[in-house]
Amino acid sequence: MFYFLLNAFVVFLLIGLFIIYWKLIRTAKRIYDALHNQHVPGKPFVPIIGQLSELYQAHKNDTIIDFMTNIVQKYGYYFLVGFGPLTRLFIIEPKMIGDILHRSHEQDYIKPADFVTIFEPFIGKHNLLVSEGAEHDRARKMINPAFYFNNLKAMISIMVEQTNKSIDELLSNFNNQQTVDLQKEFSALTLSIIVSGAFGKQLENQGDLKAIVCESIPKVAAAIEYRTMRMINQVPLLAKLPICQKHIIDQCSQDIARIVDQIIADRREGRSASLSSSSDLLDLLLSAVDSEGIPFNDQEIKEHALTFVFAGHETTGSLMIWISYILMTNNNVLRACQEEVDRILANGTQITYEHLTELNVCEAVIQETLRLYPSAPFLSRECIHEHTIGNENDRQLLIPVDTTIIIDIYQLHRRAEFWHRPLEFDYTRWLRDPITGLKPKLSHPFCYLPFGAGPRNCIGQNFAMLEAKVILASFIQRCNFELEPGQKIIPDIMVNMRSNHFQIEQLNRLRSLTLPDVKTDWLQHVLSNLDKLECLNSLSLVTGEYTDNVYRRSDSMTNFTKEYRFNMIPLARLRQLTISNCSINDLQKIFTEASQLQSLNIHLYSISQNVKSFPTLSRLTRLILKIDNKNNPLFTTNVLSMNTMELFLWKLPRLRHFVFSGKVHIDVANGQRWEILAIDLVTFHFNFQLEIDRINDILESFCTPFWLENKRWFVAYKDHRLFSIPYFADTIASFPFYPPVHSTAPDDRFFFQHIKHLQLPEVPTVDLHFFTHIETLELRCTILLTTLQTMIDLSRCPLANHSPDIFRWIYRVELFATVV
Ligand code: HEM
């Protein structure tokens, strides 16, 4: 008996060892040897455990990035590392990466098995993220239209609403001397946006259901991370065992699946709807059909919708965290964003799609953040057909079947060969050329891959960019944070890249506050507490535009604001102030009390000649002054004369940037008088509203060497406006568009280049000028692509650049025209 048991034990042991060898060692060793024989450097092959202990130690000590950086320094841009039993080939070489990700090699690679094991328990197998081959192709084609800009435009109201809600909640606690965990806040906000965008009104109206979904998803994400860091998900057998938080994933997945099933059923039967005025992601999934007219089934719809939620929230959340970190530690970046937001979203303007397309600095900051802190720091692929990658004249690698490749985006984005001063945060490297509007060219098409590349690239990238811009601009518009001192901020690589130990001190240190058109009682409450914000040095208070209904609605506000507002604002401390609805007396108070003020954006409803008695505002360098009485029946405006303008500007000896818009006396339209006043100005943009009879005489005064050569400032006159160009030139045009006849610009290019939105109600029959900077095109007619190309530089149209689908769209128009 003993011998029998011993024999049986030995047999089981041998079988066990054989299985371990076969499953966990043989393939890994084969791949290691095949690559090692091609002189691929790397860590030595250690069966089963590989470099796990070093990795684990580095993770524990928060030095995982240093660990990887050291390996790159030692071995170069491709090398081998053992992740436990699995050999991984790391690649940081753009040409090789291109060979792996490009559509032409689609059939040679799949997502690795452990990638599928990680996500399958929660989102299933039949979705964009993990499906393969024909199933993926079909789904991608059906879902692509949901992410066209036309459909995404409808999502912007959802993004804005959710962001404002989140900021309101933060601000409503501002008496508490608390710190805010921004990581949690941004994660909750991006989750809320994608959940509302994917599932619509029903979840929004039933707060408890939304809470279940929003609480369960981070739990699942945390459990997945926990299991991945312990190699549970990487070994299929272990992944199935009820250990290491599997119960959390199972329970949460069931809860969410139940709710989502109900939402889909209700939407099919019209019992619930999108949150926006147009279709949301769920509507688009329900209406999508493949080339044979077959729609998705309920299971597929559920999986795709959950995939959007899962793939779209932590990624954008960690992007926002890193952006706020950058803003809090780089004053110049913060200032640049603030200036842009103040200009494009002046006076608390509600964000629209058109505004987002103009936020170029914000866009550049987002792109640079994604370079240094990519939310998805690694991409992985498994080779299923032997295949050669690399440069014929330099280095080539034959990739054996079953090799898992890790593309290290984090290191790629920091390679000195492709990025000038690679470790420096320099958003200007992404700014468009002011003349051509083009973005700078990358040093290599595969050196910047925050959203991946090829047929499996991020389908949600346009969504993510719009969302990040909405959140960034809204936070800049409405509040400001300061970094809690003494924190250790380190990139931490888990499923997504995020920061570790990230807490932000909240509102007792608030330096900047934006109050858009808020209710009077709330405004009163906030204003009466302003003195408690000891660090406040920037305030934006926009109390209604001059529309009839505002005045009808808020007589009390007018009284309130007139009577009390200025008594409550701590003018003496402010360095920046944006304020609307002001009289000349309010302006005088600002000049008298706000001695620290450096930047003022003010909207006046009246101006008089008594500016002579104003004191000097010696620190002001930036002024945006708008005088407007056009819709305001309560006030009359005296037009501003040049004498008053001179008296006024003499009170501002350090003024360098001046933007003016308003009705003026004819004597203000005198270029020669401005030469003395504007000599120290670096930027000067104006929009003088006035009637002019002898325009040629006036234009002549703006044609001196001072205007045309020293400053290179040009002006134009059209529709009773004498304005500087291109700042105040039209950005929207409808065909046929005629530039101003009267202008000092060397040619008409200025006007055509400034048009960003073009409407084409009919096919042009006359020759049109070539538009080079069109960002959105409204086609209301059938037109040949070739005709369109003679009018518009489509390759420069960022929409077209971002989305090849736009090209398809225009192409479809061409086909249609041919059929007609
Ligand atoms: C800053 C935000 C985001 C980043 C950095 C990001 C990054 C990525 C990357 C790198 C991939 C490619 C993965 C691979 O090649 O293996 C990817 C795929 C994907 N992303 Fe995103 N993503 C973001 C936001 C979003 C959003 C908002 C959504 C949904 C609304 C989304 C949905 C997806 C989906 C469905 C895939 C799989 C596409 C396919 O395989 O066909 N992502 N993402």
From TrEMBL:
The chain crosses the membrane at residues 6-25, 75-92. Heme binds at residue 458. The keyword Disulfide bond does not apply. Gene3D superfamilies: Cytochrome P450. Pfam families: p450. Its cofactor is heme. One of its GO terms (molecular function) is iron ion binding. The keyword Manganese does not apply. Keywords: Heme, Iron, Membrane, Metal-binding, Monooxygenase, Oxidoreductase, Transmembrane, Transmembrane helix. PANTHER family: BIFUNCTIONAL ALBAFLAVENONE MONOOXYGENASE_TERPENE SYNTHASE, CYTOCHROME P450 FAMILY 4. Belongs to the cytochrome P450 family. This is Cytochrome P450. It comes from Rotaria sordida.
